[in-house]
Specification:
By secondary structure, the protein is of the alpha/beta class. Helices cover 40% and strands 18% of the residues. It has a six-stranded mixed sheet, sandwiched between helices. The model has no long low-confidence stretch (mean pLDDT 93).
Amino acid sequence: MVSLEKRIQDGAPKLISLVKPLRVELEKRNLLDVTARVALVVDISGSMNRSYKDGTVQEIVNKLLPVAVQFDDDGALDFWFYGTTCERRPPVNMSNYESAIPDDWKKIRERIGGVNNEPAVMEEVIAEFAESTLPVYVVFVTDGGISKTAQIKKLLIEASYQPIFWQFVGVRGKDYGILEKFDTLKERYVDNANFFALDDFSSVPNDELYSRLLDEFPTWLAAIKGNGVLDGSVRQTTDDLLARLRRYFGFDS
């Protein structure tokens, strides 16, 4: 297998300084042999203006791309913007990552709306990956103002039966609401989400950033091993139980 360093050196040499700190964290967590889909979801609401203008969002793309190159067979990052609705973008890879955040990003906001609505994009991500036979690692970037607590909770419970791990990252934000309460979120089949906040993404050393990004992903991978998440059997069992309950209570009549 071609090493991560070789792939980045050949395909995106500007990112080569990220390889060593990432590899150290991968080795610590026994993740070097993991194959997974990797996705990035980024808030494009009005309060994110500064982070788009000063290049912070592009830097987030840059630093997450080597994770996708390491984990994903196609070396690409599935990518969504979200505001009031959401927009799936072309996959980000080593050939196009420098233009992942287009100069006319404000036009995207005009199309999808400038108020953050997390459930809209979560539903689309779940629909995309619910049947995946590979683990899916989703990095979800927001600056807070989280208000749709009940809907987010419902979606995370639903997604806990699916091969999707949600790593929420707060950037220059506040009012993170339910994102700060994952440790007390019950009713999930497995713990499928983590959250941390950064006041200044650019000031965080790369080794610390990758350590935090990958902190709970290995625990989730262990939790879904052999319990029906990856092969879909737990979802089939759950669907069958719900169908029997609907028939028992006469909801299907």
